[in-house]
Structures are given as C-alpha cells and as structure tokens.
Structures
1.
Amino acid sequence: MSNWSGAVKVEDFTGTLALNGSAFYSFRVPVRGTVSFILQSLKEGGVDSSTLVLVGFGVPRGTGCIASTPAGVSAKPSPQGATVLDPGIYCVQISDNGNLTAPATFALAIISPL
C-alpha cells in the first residue's frame, strides 16, 4: 500500500558523478510506504544534460550501496522511480554506465513517508 496521501519528507542528495563512477546516499524510512526519487538535474561540464544514468534503491553494505534493479533515467521534474519499503535504512545509488562524456553534477530528491 502506498503512502502518497500521508505526510512525506524530501531529502536532497547532490554531488558529482565521475565517468563510470557511482555515488550513494543513505536514508531512513520510519514507516512502510512508497518511496520515490526525482533526478532533478544533471549537468555535464556545467551544461544541462539529458544523458541517461542509472538510479536505484538498495541497502547500504559497508561503505557502499547495492542497488537492486536500477533504472536508466534522465533529469526531469517528476518521480522516476518508486517502490514500497518497510521501515529501515536504505540507500539510493546513482551510476554512470558509460554514457557520460564528462564528470557530471547532479541533484536527486528522495521522497519518503513520515
């Protein structure tokens, strides 16, 4: 069951994505509900990019994140991935699968139930 009608929190995850690199952000889900992400921006060399990168949810493992079923997405203003998660600690990972031509800055928003 999703939790779109209830209260949500939005966490911002920004950084730089190296060529063929990845980055992740850990977050806490306090109650079962729908968690989604929005890749708000992706800029290669300071210029807006429509390049596809991989983004997916997972569980932190040591100093990394193992994302299950990452999706190829490009920056846009609406949710691009969603899943129902139980309470716990999760992560979202963004990766370049060889499509970037230069390191890219990104801004991701993670929306989860309160």
2.
Amino acid sequence: MRINFTLPVLVMSMFIVCASCSKDEAVISANPNPSVSATQVINATINSENKYELPLTSPDVQIHKQASHFSLSSIGVDSKNGMTIYQYLPAKGFTGTDEVTLKDTKTYLSYSNGGGCNRDDMSSQSVTKTSFITIKFSVAN
C-alpha cells in the first residue's frame, strides 16, 4: 500500500531595498521632533475609602506635582507582578477634587550622517523626550 503526503508550499515574497548616497543629511531617529512633550489626562472617580492604582509602562516615572489631599500618593512596585504602579489614597474624610502629575523622561541618542554613506561620518546627539500624565481625582463618599 502506498501513502501519498501533500505538503503545503509556502511562497515567500522578497523585497529589495535600495539606498543611495547623497549629500543630504540622513537622520536616524525614533522621534523626528524631540522637543515635543506628550501629556495624557486621566479622570478618575473614586470612593474616599478606596485606593486608586495606575500601572505604569516605565520604571523611570516620577511624581512631578504632588497631590494635595492624600494619605498615600507614591510610585512603587506591585508585589504581585513586579510592575511599576502609581498609588493614591485620599486623606481620611476628604471628598472633592485632587490632582497629581507624573513625569517620564527618556534620553536616547539620535544619529545623523553628515552626507554620504561612510559610517565613520556618523555623529550622535543626546535627545530627551518628556511625557506627563495628569490624574484628576474626583473623590466621593
């Protein structure tokens, strides 16, 4: 008895990328406009007895402007999963509005080529990008 197997054939497309040398400056950077800072605003409504937690994507986040009415307002590490988190607990008996601003600063190198393809001509410049997260709390009983 003869058994025939059919194997699927995977066809791959091939792309060819061509680069040319020019006298124009070539810039390799993840951020084309490094002077721009991003701001995110989060509106959070919480009970005066509950703690608010925000998972953070970077361990470099710091408190830029501290909240005014808190018994806990800090950045730490979640003991369950090891992620960086911001925690807020309103002051005992406080109801109303409060606000905290978090700041994340990233510094990276931006490379540029002075014109041409010689890798020895590459120069780097330190670029800093700052982003902010403002959390506006509405604390109720």
